[in-house]
């Protein structure tokens, strides 16, 4: 039974994950190395919940209870009684491994360690911890409060009990769980989605069409809610590139090479919507 959750990383994903667990009635800690990120994230949740009340999608009581269940913390040691920790920090192996090693010292032996990684091996993350059977992938989709899917990824070492507890926690959120039975880069969704996004950058780089034309073509021609370039901005070009690089390195095929134009945008710091500039320009 999961009765307390901790979310680490209060960026666009961590904030949403904390909000949905809090809304399901579970007290949820939110921690980030930048205290201002936690404040900003809770303020955004409050804004979204207020919008939900105005649109009569949730009651005022739901909003109050959800906000009361969101507990900002400034020290990792405050997470010691969490039954489930969901890590949603930046998409890099070393900081995630380092974090799980620290959590080994803080949490009890039966706390589940979940990663929201988009592409990093759960098996590799697990191998860095003292108790690899407790590590699992819980891959929420962006924006978390809206998207119905959570991919569950079993590392080679993940125990059946940890898998069942994690799955139950996802179903209690009202989400649909789909399990990647094997832990290969990108799991199910990103293995298919990110090569499409990367290809859209090649189409742009080759001058075949403008960003708007590429996005219109895919939106109107294949009924996607957003075109691939707008989606790349929404996800974050830094995250998209990190995923492409893992595919290229670990699957070892040229077809996964990151588009040089995407690399350039990331070098320029044009990470997408979260920084105000990506393929498109946004007002902050
Ligand atoms: N957080 C919470 N709620 C949000 C939100 C956010 N960031 N952005 C939009 N919403 C909500 C709005 O409040 C609105 O809710 P109501 O219907 O209750 O009013 C609803 O979503 C629709 O929003 P809008 O009317 O403003 O805009 P829209 O109809 O264009 O929808 C969208 C926005 C939901 C983002 C839609 O464009 C969409 O589904 N886009 C594709 C998203 C997608 O593919 N996500 C997966 C990305 S890949 C991934 O996550 C995996 C990875 O590892 C990279
Ligand atoms: P983000 O850049 O919006 O947020 C990351 C947050 O982590 C930042 O607030 C940062 O301060 C914090 N952080 C960094 N190192 C930390 C540490 N050691 N301890 C605590 N906090 C730390 O990133 P995001 O888009 O929310 O992505 C987070 C994770 O979720 C990544 O693994 C990403 O691949 C994955 N993911 C992203 C998306 C997406 O659409 N952006 C979708 C699914 C999964």
Description of the molecule:
There is one protein chain. The protein is α/β, with parallel strands linked by helices. It folds into 2 domains: 5-180, 3-Layer(aba) Sandwich (Rossmann fold); 191-274, N-(1-d-carboxylethyl)-l-norvaline Dehydrogenase, domain 2. The chain contains 11 helices and 8 strands. It has helices at 12-23, 35-54, 60-69, 93-106, 122-127, 160-171, 189-205, 211-222, 228-235, 237-251, 260-267, and strands spanning 5-8, 28-31, 70-73, 84-87, 112-115, 135-140, 149-154, 176-180. An 8-stranded mixed beta sheet has the order 3-2-1-4-5-6-7-8. Helix 1 (12-23) crosses helix 2 (35-54) and helix 7 (189-205) packs across helix 9. The longest helix is centred in the first third of the chain and has 20 residues, at 35-54. The mean pLDDT is 97. The chain binds acetoacetyl-coenzyme A and nicotinamide-adenine-dinucleotide. The site of nicotinamide-adenine-dinucleotide has 25 residues, from helix 1 and helix 4.
